[in-house]
Amino acid sequence: MAILDVENLEVTFSKGAEKVHAVRGVSFAVKQGESYGIVGESGSGKSTVLRAICGLAPRTAGTIRVDGEALILPLTSAFYRQVQMVFQDPYASLHPRHTVDRVLSEPLAIHGFDDRENRVDRALEDVGLGQGFRFRYPHQLSGGQRQRVAIARALILEPSILLLDEPTSALDASIQAEVLNLLDRLRGERGLTYVMVSHDLSVVAHMCERLLVMQHGLAVEEMTREDLQARRAKEPYTQSLLSATLGYRADEKEKTE
Ligand code: ADP
Ligand code: MG
Q1: Atom number of ligand 1 nearest to Cα 217
Q2: From the CA of 48, how far away is ligand 2's center (Å)?
Q3: Which of 2, 23, 122, 171 could connect to 11 by a Cys-Cys bridge, CB 3.0–4.6 Å?
Q4: pTM passes above 0.90
Q5: CATH number of the domain at 4-256, out of 3.40.50.300, 1.10.760.10, 1.10.287.3610, 3.30.230.10?
């Protein structure tokens, strides 16, 4: 059974009289422990799919199941114990006047965890930040360190599913590789399930076992990592996406590792 099952998801935004049909009947299923990618050009609806899963975008139709159970809005605190999201921009996602300690302690307090001190310490260690970072403010951290704090915050409730929205695209290439390696290691150690959105096919080829290609709110094609690496695309849109981005990026990535 899939740990996450998205069936015929539709999302429509209303801007006054205008309607934006951002997601048009998207379905996919992610297995326990799998890393599943969503790729597509800017505006294709990738972020909206993730946001709809965790209740941040309006689901106008479709069913989302976690562990076989259909999600009903508003989402419960049990859902957020199980599913957490990491956003693209680590500058926007951390409150500028909250210390790292507060960022990490608050979810623990809200969800009634005991032993908070130790959990915060461990969370920082787990993402490669020591005790010295605990009482810093976001402006005292680099972009990569901020994203590590955001990952620590997402993991502190010990969820089983992480939704990752372009988690490294705001970072320099060398820092990108470090954060991706961290995410990869954490998934292995904890048996986490990832859904990772990226416009960068080489990132998805590195991180994900299967992926969904989106265009204009539609699911164009589902592929395995092997299909992607061998450039075995069925749909003309995917073929053009591959030839536009993968060759050049794949070479560039090897140099930075
Ligand atoms: P991607 O992540 O693939 O770049 P998005 O999911 O962010 O794409 O956006 C898909 C479409 O939905 C775009 O046309 C975007 O302008 C629109 N959209 C996203 N969020 C909102 C919103 N809150 N209100 C109105 N339109 C939105
Ligand atoms: Mg996006």
Answers
A1: 10
A2: 7
A3: 23
A4: yes
A5: 3.40.50.300
